[in-house]
Write a structure and sequence with these properties.
By secondary structure, the protein is an alpha/beta fold. 30% of the residues lie in helices and 26% in strands. β12 and β13 form a beta hairpin. The radius of gyration is 22 Å and the shape is globular. Bound molecules: uridine-diphosphate-N-acetylglucosamine.
Length: 427
């Protein structure tokens, strides 16, 4: 069993460069299906979710060459299957992002139904309703969704009930090949959607309004391959900002490789908590907060506070001088992390989708289990300032989205290592 072991109390210094955004890279990889030929993606993070998406594409007949650690050369010329199999979708729900591109290129897709995950039910009904408006017919059997648009996709007006990231992306990737114009109202505005639209436009698509609530897509007859650089990962950056706010030495730490505008609301809230964040070229410098102030946060679609930063923000507020409330509005089951932080001495009470957090003086190192990707990283960060040793298990969750997490923390001066230990529950 792999764990990350952290010894608390070591000051951080220096600079960390974040990797490419996981949530962008996965969709951009799916989008390569739309253009037969060789597309190069740069600044792709070397993380397990990207490896899973690589397997999905290869199953369909694509070839992928890893040109250097962060560049993928994806040849989709010989793709001849439109199926995302269960064993891969079950590993990573974001595999469903191939549905839009497959419909765009082949007019059909067969996708395993994703089922629930540890963030709750995570339905895809909005993807389906939106695609139905574009003329797609759906059928389900034996755990698979069969999508058929063999008579061609037709542009339509779609109003999303909720600004879903995944539904907006799937709709955009189908609509680029539809006959006529599609307008998506109440579209998600996340920076990763802008990145996707930029790449699709460089492939010959005609998308305007990405990053606003109304996205207009004029369908085109074909798309061509391109070369595209993935944006920096704002959530990885936010995670290191929390590490710096808690554990940086006198000079603070630099977090680089991302656009700080993508973290606008996070930086605003952290500044209200008394954290000193200075904008520098290509990122920010963050200094350790002598006193953390309590704050109320609610997660919302972009430009609101991202749900993917909720656990990391909870670590900060758990050490604040006073009481905070964090409200989770996006996912139904995203507070599992709190009970692990309580094992480290935090004082947190959960009521429905609210967490009431009373600041404590410090954490005590403990054995904790990573409940999900962001929660796992947040536990490691909490360990940086805990008394003694913290051992975080189930770190495959962290590997899904943080490239070389341990090495990056080590380079900043943290005392952290990855270790393989016998599973204590084995006889
Ligand atoms: C993406 C991100 C994830 C982030 C989330 C919200 C990727 C790979 N993942 O997930 O890291 O936390 O955006 O910023 O990019 N919903 C429905 N029906 C649907 C679609 C969504 O009910 O058809 C619900 C979901 O269950 C969830 C909420 O809407 O409660 C938000 O989901 P969505 O914005 O679609 O998130 P994802 O694209 O799954």
């Amino acid at each position: 069993m792999d764990i990350i072991r952290v010894e608390g109390g070591h000051a951080l210094a220096g600079s960390v460069c974040v990797s490419g955004a996981k949530n962008s890279a996965l969709k951009l990889m799916a989008a390569t299906l739309l253009a037969p030929g060789v597309t190069t993606l740069q600044n792709v993070p070397n993380i397990s979710d990207v490896h899973v998406m690589g397997k999905v594409l290869k199953r369909m007949g694509a070839t992928i060459e890893v040109a250097d650690e962060h560049s993928l050369v994806i040849d989709t010329s010989n793709v001849d299957s439109w199926e995302a199999p269960y064993e891969l979708v079950a590993k990573m729900r974001a595999s469903t992002a191939v549905m839009g591109p497959l419909l765009g290129r082949f007019g059909r897709a067969k996708i395993a139904m994703p089922g629930g995950c540890n963030l709750g039910a995570r339905k895809i009904d909005m993807h389906i309703l939106g695609l139905e408006a574009l003329g797609v017919k759906f059928d389900t059997d034996h755990g698979y969704i069969h999508a058929d648009a063999s008579e061609g996709l037709i542009g339509a007006n779609v109003t999303l009930e909720f600004a879903s990231v995944g539904a907006t992306e799937n709709l955009i990737m189908a609509a680029v090949r539809a006959r006529g114009t599609t307008v998506i109202d109440n579209a998600a505005r996340e920076p990763e959607i802008v990145d996707l639209a930029n790449m699709l436009n460089s492939m010959g698509a005609k998308i305007v309004g990405a990053g606003t609530p109304v996205v207009q897509i004029e369908g085109v007859k074909e798309l061509h391959p391109t070369t595209h650089r993935v944006i920096g990962d704002r959530i990885e950056a936010g995670t290191f900002i929390v590490a710096g706010a808690l554990a940086a030495g006198e000079d603070g730490i630099e977090v680089r490789g991302f656009n700080s505008n993508h973290l606008g609301m996070v930086i605003k809230k952290f500044e209200l908590m008394g954290i000193d964040i200075e904008h520098i070229e290509g990122g920010v410098r963050v200094r350790r907060a002598e006193r953390i102030l309590p704050v109320d946060i609610q997660t919302l679609p972009f430009p609101g506070f991202p749900t993917d930063m909720q656990a990391q923000a909870m670590v900060l507020s758990a050490l604040a001088d006073g009481s905070s409330v964090i409200t989770e509005n996006i996912f139904e089951n995203r507070f599992m992390f709190a009970s692990e932080l309580v094992r480290m001495g935090a004082d947190i009470r959960i009521e429905s989708h609210h967490a009431m957090i009373h600041g404590v003086k410090g954490f005590s190192g403990a054995q904790v289990v990573s409940p999900d990707l962001r929660g796992g990283a947040a536990l490691v960060v909490a360990g940086l300032v805990a008394d003694g040793y913290t051992e975080v298990s189930a770190i495959h969750h962290i590997d899904r989205g943080y490239e070389h997490f341990v090495k990056k923390l080590e380079d900043l001066g943290a005392c952290v290592q990855r270790a393989t230990i016998p599973d204590p529950t084995d006889e």
